[in-house]
Amino acid sequence: MNIGLLLYIPYRDLENRIMAVITEAGYDVTLAQARLLQRIGPDGTRLTELAEAAQVTKQTAGFLVDQLEKAGYVERVPDPTDGRARLVRVTEKAKGAAPVAEAEIARIEAEWERHIGKRRMTQLREALEKLGEITDPYR
């Protein structure tokens, strides 16, 4: 099995488990919407930047933002640096999901650490952070 698939399988499990607890907590978002929400910066992000970061078309990002806006998870606000542009910003409703997701991530990481051991988990994190230096274009 190639390394990409070996990296993807645990990530997919983590993502599915996070989505399950988010849904159980009453946050009605799809996986595609959640992936877009994750990429919105603390001060808001332009739609074109969201589309690029999520690796979707601007039309797809716009559609997802429309859905999220109708559900009350995001709002569009004027960009203070460019009067012609708008920023997509998360609302307090969306921010409420963060602690739910963070708690599940902590549970999952603890489970993984129990399974592979503290030393290996530390090494895994260090190796992935190092790989991020050459693979993460948004770093």
TrEMBL record:
SUPFAM superfamilies: Winged helix' DNA-binding domain. Signal peptide: none annotated. Gene3D superfamilies: Winged helix-like DNA-binding domain superfamily/Winged helix DNA-binding domain. Residues 1-133 form the HTH marR-type domain. Keywords: DNA-binding, Transcription, Transcription regulation. InterPro entries: HTH_MarR-typ, MarR/SlyA-like, Tscrpt_reg_MarR-type_CS, WH-like_DNA-bd_sf, WH_DNA-bd_sf. The keyword ATP-binding does not apply. PANTHER family: MARR-FAMILY TRANSCRIPTIONAL REGULATOR (PTHR33164:SF57), TRANSCRIPTIONAL REGULATOR, MARR FAMILY (PTHR33164). This is MarR family winged helix-turn-helix transcriptional regulator. It comes from Lentzea rhizosphaerae.
